[in-house]
UniProtKB/TrEMBL annotation:
UniProt KW rRNA processing keyword: no
Gene3D superfamilies reported in the protein's UniProt record: Aspartate Aminotransferase, domain 1, Type I PLP-dependent aspartate aminotransferase-like (Major domain)
EC identifiers of the protein: 2.6.1.62
Assembly behavior: Homodimer.
GO BP terms in the entry: biotin biosynthetic process
Signal peptide interval: none
Residues binding substrate: 51, 144, 286, 319, 403
Source organism: Catenovulum agarivorans DS-2
Name assigned to this protein: Adenosylmethionine-8-amino-7-oxononanoate aminotransferase
Catalytic activity, reaction form: (8S)-8-amino-7-oxononanoate + S-adenosyl-L-methionine = S-adenosyl-4-methylsulfanyl-2-oxobutanoate + (7R,8S)-7,8-diammoniononanoate
GO molecular function term, any single one: adenosylmethionine-8-amino-7-oxononanoate transaminase activity
Length: 435
């Protein structure tokens, strides 16, 4: 094998791992469609879309072509004082696709950075109104928004590394997480949304926090409808709709972190659409490039943008070196075109049906706490945490790539997956439970 795994083990950090006692990593030779081929010859059906990103599968001819063609024009130029077609085309597409009113685009280089940008936008917005005290954030427990400092400060305080970085991160306000209930019958959803009631139990606490602290709060930040890395919890869109109303009522902005949910994953282009709301600021990332490379964006309204620019600084204070990278924008343009060409809605609906068909029976196992499916997301929540090393090796033996965490064994397969792929992924989970 040509890859030096010993060097990898000794010198290279992988996500959230030890360098003195790392778990095994599996060397990948190539990936194509929904399959990942290991250096050791195994071919694995991908159940993760490389963390929500590779929605069209790997090694896609159209995405490859976009990259090659763009590299022959220019791979990168600075975005300060220069602009280019890939960035303009992409921003147009994002404005067209996003909920109405989000029409100003900041191209960031990763999801976490787009969250930092969103939080800075909210703070600069209130500074322009001479409300310097409005610089805290209100969020809910079980959230996840990224690993940089501001993003970390609004992640779940228990799961989210707060104890480690307690003295360095800013202290924000946390309400209990929304009740993890998504209506089973989606046709009833509209009716239930009409009846959205601010007096519901799970809103009382967040309302009280707003009442007490709104003079210090810049924005509410939340993952719409699906709390991802903080527990793969799906909550009722009514809650999101109520947050929109509360944000208006208490004069704070609403930031929607659509980094995981955006671009069709939940069955809507953006999860905010489940509640029919427009946030003041929205972060997108991950699937934006079809999983090819890192790119994210923070969108906002004209009102927020104008106010920021009327303020003391006169500009928005952020500008990364690789902002608007043409290669990333070109592949994102191709990926967004593919979503439409491939009829993503039908693809996601099919995946959702197959996830239901093959995962729901798993709920019968004694070790299983809950099985839930929304769009192209399927979650098997177990009663006990899984032994990572063993389960990972087991799944590889079964010919699938599934990467559980804690008690959660979950699937977010590429949208191009076929029934046989979902069956194989679910079959491997079932085999583990029978094992
Ligand atoms: N927000 C959410 C909801 C996410 O799921 C993630 C990534 N898991 C991030 C932010 C951070 O994005 P990135 O890893 O690209 O920095």
């Amino acid at each position: 094998m040509s890859i030096d795994l010993e060097f990898d083990r000794k010198h290279i950090w992988h996500p959230y791992t030890s360098l003195t006692n790392p778990l095994p990593t599996y060397p990948v030779k190539s990936a194509c469609g929904v399959e990942i081929t290991l250096e050791t010859g195994e071919v694995l059906v991908d159940g993760m879309s490389s963390w929500w990103a590779a929605v069209h599968g790997y090694n896609h001819p159209k995405l490859n072509q976009a990259l090659v063609e763009q590299s022959q024009q220019m791979s990168h130029v600075m975005f300060g004082g220069l602009t280019h077609k890939p960035a303009v085309d992409l921003s147009k597409k994002l404005v067209d696709l996003a909920p109405n009113g989000l029409e100003k685009v900041f191209l960031a280089d990763s999801g976490s950075v787009s969250v930092e940008v969103a939080m800075k936008m909210a703070i600069q917005y209130w500074q322009s109104e001479h409300k310097q005290d409005k610089c805290r954030f209100l969020t809910v427990k079980n959230g996840y928004h990224g690993d940089t400092f501001a993003a970390m400060s609004v992640c779940d305080p228990v799961n989210g590394m707060h104890t480690l970085f307690n003295k360095t991160i800013n202290q924000h306000l946390f309400a209990n997480a929304p009740t993890p209930i998504f209506p089973k019958d989606k046709n009833e959803l509209d009716e239930q949304l009409e009846k959205a009631d601010l007096a519901q139990d799970h809103l009382i606490e967040i309302t009280q926090l707003l009442k007490a602290h709104h003079n210090d709060i810049a924005a509410i930040i939340i993952e719409p409808v699906v709390q991802g890395a903080g527990g793969m919890r799906f909550y009722h869109p009514q809650y999101l709709k109520a947050l929109r109303q509360l944000a208006n009522q208490y004069n704070v902005l609403l930031i929607a972190d659509e980094i995981a949910t955006g671009f069709g994953r939940t069955g809507k282009m953006f999860a905010c659409e489940w509640a029919d709301i427009t946030p003041d600021i929205m972060c997108v990332g991950k699937a934006i490039t079809g999983g090819y490379m890192t790119l994210a964006a923070t969108l906002t309204t004209s009102k927020v943008a104008e106010q920021i620019c009327n303020g003391q600084a006169g500009v928005f204070m952020h500008g990364p070196t690789f902002m608007g990278n043409p290669l990333a924008c070109a592949v994102a343009n191709a990926s967004l075109e593919l979503l439409i060409e491939n009829n993503w809605k039908e693809q996601v609906a099919n995946v959702e049906n197959w996830l239901n068909k093959y995962l729901q029976p798993i709920a019968e196992f004694a070790q299983v706490e809950d099985v839930r499916v929304l769009g192209a997301i399927g979650v098997v929540e177990l009663k006990e945490p899984v032994p990572m090393e063993q389960i990972q090796a087991f799944f590889v033996e079964q010919g699938v790539w599934i990467r559980p965490f804690g008690k959660l064994v979950y699937l977010m397969p590429p949208f191009i997956s076929e029934e046989k792929h979902i069956k194989k992924l679910a079959g491997a989970i079932e085999a583990w439970l029978k094992n």
